[in-house]
């Protein structure tokens, strides 16, 4: 089945399209419209944004401009770190709804595990009951943060979105999420554009006549991760979804496993909140 038609089921019974468009660093209205319209025209039905990306208004307008029905598009946003106090999260949820110009958010995440993360979670749970949010989850949570949350949560997180790619495989965290029915979502799947510099990925790209970006995305698809590659360019948005005509063998996956592990973004265990 085409990656753009695949859904992954949450522990609350709802689905998320396995592939979406990331929008981090898309700032200008023109590039936001180009990327979002290209994605939806190509068949993407899932867009990932966040309060801190400062692009939600244009993202919402770009989605509306495609005239695809609201209920057919899956929209994720995230509560920024400075708003994790209970009352601040409540306020930020309304700002997100207002900026995106929508009545409900499909998936709302705690962006990073700040010291106020549990207060934030309580406000997210209430937003589900109020009908403002369909599903709630976390981002950049380590095993210790998940263990703590699972002890107190009235609603279980459906997903954990974290840096995860062929050069950062996070085995223990992935296994923990899978064991607790928390869907794994990869950010930075293309090693944030650095996949072209990795010898093992160069080899596989050559072997399959695909780009290194497509090799990374196929690797993530085969692991059942939700993927949200970002590109500001129409051709690349289309290219990133064009991964249905090949697969990777056990030997290819073994080769990928030899890539040197290296985190590109901040480390959640010592991120300076
Ligand atoms: N939860 C979090 O803390 C967190 C953190 C980071 C990101 N995210 C989310 O995850 C999404 C993806 O992560 P990311 O944007 O950091 O990294 P990414 O998707 O791994 O890589 C994006 C980079 O790759 C380039 N690129 C994309 N497709 C390409 C292709 N086919 N060929 C060549 N270059 C290509 C893009 O450049 P061009 O735009 O010039 O094409 C951009 O520089 C974000 O947009 C955001 O929605 C979440």
Automatic annotation (TrEMBL):
Gene3D superfamilies: NADP-dependent oxidoreductase domain. CDD domains: AKR_AKR1-5-like. Keywords: NADP, Oxidoreductase. The record marks 78 as: Lowers pKa of active site Tyr. Residues 19-259 form the NADP-dependent oxidoreductase domain. One of its GO terms (molecular function) is oxidoreductase activity, acting on the CH-OH group of donors, NAD or NADP as acceptor. The active site is at residue 53. Substrate binds at residue 111. InterPro entries: AKR, Aldo/ket_reductase_CS, NAD(P)_OxRdtase_dom_sf, NADP_OxRdtase_dom. Belongs to the aldo/keto reductase family. This is Aldo/keto reductase.
